[in-house]
Amino acid sequence: MTKSEEDYIKLLYQPSLPNQGGMKASSIAKFFGYTEQSVHEMIKRLQEKKLLEFVPYKPIFLTAKGRNLALTMIRSHRIWEVFLYEKLGYRWDEVHALSELLEHINHEGIVERLYQFLNQPKHCPHGNRIPLLDKADEMDSWIPLSQIMIGNQFTVKRVEDDPELLSFLTSIHIELGTTVNIINVDGFNEVMQISVNHQPCVISFKNASRVFGENS
Asked: How many C-beta atoms lie closer than 10 Å to residue 197's C-beta?
């Protein structure tokens, strides 16, 4: 498998989960910035390898073989994130981009050796589960911060791994395990007033919807 082929498979994975609607070639072209012709050429190649199901003008879905490959890559990505974060001291807003490159490396089982070296971590630095081999990717059933009512406390368990979001959360001292107090909810301006370590700050509904955890 080439890096480009693996990137396609990984992109198609989430829409291929149960109850999702697949992905059209035009959406893939827009995501990568490729021409639709080049996307169709890649789709044909991946179809020949029995990694996806394609019918012209219909959404594209991964086969079971394709989903297994995607899960292997996701597992590799998150294990590399743990290594970069815990052992090399990279920030949580830096590890995603680097792991996008490293996830394609699995020479002589290096990822599984790394997994054992890290004492078999269960989550990446952003709180996403690290899939087990031959197991489905599972999500913890946390609720978004945006749904928490005034006066409640909230413990952060997972965040979307978007660098801008992570950088913002760092600036207001939010990380995994942080306890957030909900002071006020301003529906008109779509912001929440919260307290972190007794320091008041403001977070938009949009950003709060991308931070997940539990009432505490």
From this structure: 12
Using a CB cutoff of 8 Å and minimum separation of 24, what contacts does 37-43 make?
42/4, 42/5, 42/8, 43/8
Contacts of 214 (CB under 8 A, 6+ apart): 142, 143, 154, 155, 157
Instruction: Write phi, then psi, for 197 (nearest 5 degrees).
Output: 55, 40
Torsion sign across C-alpha atoms 56, 60, 61, 62: positive
Contact yes or no for 52/94 (Cβ under 8 A): no
- What's phi and psi for 173, nearest 5 deg? 65, 35
Domains annotated on the chain, with CATH: 3-62 (1.10.10.10), 143-215 (2.30.30.90)
Would you say residue 15 has pLDDT above 70?
A: no
The confidence score (pLDDT) of residue 2 equals 87
Average pLDDT across the chain, whole number: 91
Q: How far apart are CA 133 and CA 117, in angstroms?
A: 17
pLDDT, one tens digit per residue, over 27-63 is 999 989 999 899 999 999 999 999 999 888 888 999 9
| Torsion 66-71-74-80 (CA) sign | negative
